[in-house]
């Protein structure tokens, strides 16, 4: 039985590195090869809607081709074809979300007579690269101020950017100048997959978001000392996915604080934070992040 398959030197790479490996060909008899090409591909894939309205969109942002054979006769035997691709510097990390993904693959296409294999595909991973470091030492400030009769609050997180497995440490102070009944304070760390799409029926792009991770802390209103700081902390999961933002999809992390005030609309602030996970490898090694 004839075979065609990839053997990569590594299963994941960083942007700017050289991807290298072999394409293995095994032919039981001589074969006339009209063409044999190896493609390096990267694409965003997103699923939007549900049921009968579900649609899949795909945006290919990387496609390079290496020609191996053109109109050649290959004798019976086994062949190892070495190849290399220099990876671009601006590649997004591989990602597999519930409704969106960033996928990289090698594809070999052979124009050969039946029953010889005509195609083989091998996925590989692009590791995340840390892009910002200054934000790791800068605090994240937040505040809410509104006209009477709303309460006000202010606070901070110790940093704007974190590694997976780190602790988010923060504080908040509530000023209840109008003696409102604050029933509860909710603090949330969460991540969201977002997908942007547009079709002929839409005048502007539409965005769908899907929560992926959520950690919630609730503090009863009777436990709050108004005018005094309250400390809190969250542990970021060690398998947290890195923040990324592509053309059609993204994975973002947020800090959210909400005050449940009787007889008034909720008072809240939502701030984007950055998470970086150097151990995150590639889309085919999926780690589930369920709601807590």
Please give a structural write-up:
The chain has 2 domains: 3-126, Sandwich (Immunoglobulin-like); 134-276, Immunoglobulin-like. The protein has no helices and 19 strands. It has strands at 3-8, 12-13, 18-27, 31-48, 55-74, 77-86, 95-96, 100-111, 119-126, 140-144, 152-157, 161-163, 167-175, 182-197, 206-220, 230-235, 244-245, 249-261, 267-276. Strands 2, 4, 5, 7, 8 and 9 form a 6-stranded mixed beta sheet that branches. Strands 12, 14, 15, 17, 18 and 19 form a 6-stranded mixed beta sheet that branches. Strands 10-11-13-16 form a 4-stranded antiparallel beta sheet, with no helix packed on it. A hairpin with a 3-residue loop joins strand 17 (244-245) and strand 18. The model is unreliable at 283-292 (pLDDT under 50).
How much of the residues is beta strand, in percent? over 45%
Reported by name, the CATH topology of the largest domain is: Immunoglobulin-like
**Terminal CA distance:** 50 Å
Give me the count of strands: 19
From the alpha-carbon coordinates, what is the Rg to the nearest angstrom?
A: 26 Å
How confident overall, as mean pLDDT? 90
């Amino acid at each position: 039985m004839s075979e065609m398959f990839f053997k990569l030197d590594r299963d994941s790479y960083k942007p700017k590195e050289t991807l290298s490996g072999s394409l293995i060909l095994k032919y039981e008899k001589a074969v006339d090869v009209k063409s044999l090409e190896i493609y390096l591909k990267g694409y965003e894939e997103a699923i939007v809607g549900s049921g009968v309205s579900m649609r899949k969109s795909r945006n290919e942002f990387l496609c390079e081709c290496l020609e191996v054979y053109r109109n050649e006769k290959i004798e019976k035997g086994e062949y190892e074809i070495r190849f290399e691709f220099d990876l671009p510097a601006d590649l997004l990390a591989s990602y597999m979300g519930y409704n969106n993904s960033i996928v990289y693959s090698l594809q070999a296409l052979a124009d050969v007579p039946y029953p010889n294999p005509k195609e083989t595909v091998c996925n590989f991973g692009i590791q995340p690269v840390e892009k910002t470091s200054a934000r790791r030492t800068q605090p994240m400030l937040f505040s809410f101020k509104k006209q009477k009769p709303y309460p006000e609050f202010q606070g901070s997180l110790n940093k704007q950017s974190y590694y997976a497995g780190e602790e988010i440490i923060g504080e908040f102070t509530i000023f209840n100048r109008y003696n409102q009944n604050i029933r509860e304070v909710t603090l949330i760390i969460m991540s969201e997959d977002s997908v942007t799409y547009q079709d002929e029926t839409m005048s502007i792009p539409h965005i769908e978001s899907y929560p992926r991770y959520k950690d919630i802390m609730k503090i009863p209103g009777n436990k709050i000392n108004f005018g005094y700081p309250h400390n809190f902390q969250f542990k970021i999961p060690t398998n947290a996915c890195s923040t990324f933002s592509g053309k059609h999809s993204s994975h973002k992390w947020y800090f959210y604080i909400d005050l449940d005030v009787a007889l008034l609309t909720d008072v809240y602030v939502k701030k984007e934070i950055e998470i970086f996970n150097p151990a995150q490898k590639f889309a085919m090694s999926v780690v589930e992040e369920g709601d807590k």
